[in-house]
TrEMBL record:
InterPro entries: GAF (IPR003018), GAF-like_dom_sf (IPR029016), PAS-like_dom_sf (IPR035965), PAS_4 (IPR013656). The lineage of its organism: Bacteria, Bacillati, Actinomycetota, Actinomycetes, Micromonosporales. It comes from Actinoplanes derwentensis. This is GAF domain-containing protein. Residues 144-301 form the GAF domain. Coiled coil: none annotated.
Amino acid sequence: MTAVSGTDDMRTLFGQSIAVFAALTGPSHVVESANPAFFAAIGADRARTGIPLAELLPELADQGFLALLDQVYRTGEPYTGRDARVLLGTGPHVRETFFDFTYEPHRDVGGTVTGIRMIGVETTQVKHAQRLTAEHRALLEQIARQAPLAEVLDGMARSIETLAPREVLVSVLLADPDGRHLRHGAAPSLPDFYNQAIDGIATGEGVGSCGTAAHRREPVIVTDITTDPFWTDFRDLAEQAELAACWSTPILARDGALLGTFAMYHRTPRVPQDTDLALAHLFAGTAALAIERHHIEQAKQTAEARARAAHDELARTVRSEQRLRADAEQRATAAAELTAQMRAAAAAQAAAPHPERCQLGGAAGCGAPAELKVADSWGDAAWGCHAHVEEAIINVRSVFIASEELGGLAAYLHR
């Protein structure tokens, strides 16, 4: 009677508690009784008593908890675990949970262990909150050290997919500068063909979850893609990618400008819980911070590149001006030297005596009177008769009449 009375007391104590409680009997740990919180934790479809725990929860076999029960039953020593990771369910329905728990041996009046009382508190939400805080802090540190945007967004998507209690596939699309189209930003778990297909989709009413969310500037929750009119043009694509639900949140700048969209996809139709919406809101804000920081850095780099280009162009202009000035100075010096040479040559020629006979007859010579003086641009000059002077003007480059007496070529032509 004592044992039964004690069990009844525990059932009464934990009947409405959020703490999980189960009374196990015998070496096979038959579930004698359990409170609603216990069955809610393991799944309402498994709310049965009178069967061994290993049969009720076969997934525990390889996780060490049944061995701990055997140890407590055998030794009579209680065991307490903190933040113990428990995988409940199997296959696609498996979910990760965490518990603080105690295995307390139950004895009969003679002191023999007859069963174990299991008491625990689920700490899954606390654990997930701790993980979320750590992941969020890591993302903020990445943004602060100006990590590449693609790296930040990819890391964010993977963090959310890891943190979410159920399978979720995250996508981030980035708005074009005109806000009319969305480009691929990050989607590590979506198939490549899907990412390529939606890269560049327009923003507008009825353009899937993301295009509509971007257009409305508010979240768009599509719980079943197969029936939602927003997905009419993309339903076959979603089916091919095995996507059944999509919740999209716009990513907005502090001034309200569209930066992109943050989407959470699911393999089965799903209605979001408050925790899902809070997660989307938090990371959409984080994505906005990363994207704005990226835009600021891009603008800074563009301005710096333009400043460098302007500086380089100015430097080229100054160097060209310096070369032109040096060339001009060289030409001026050369011109001054040439002028001096010409003046010296002219003075020398003026001092030379006027010959009596033509000097242009060549080897055969010419006995005609020397009547005209000719010269060239090199400063050479000679006297000759009319015939040989004309011949020289025709055949020798740059030759001109230099006769002071006739007043130059014009005087000669009109003589």
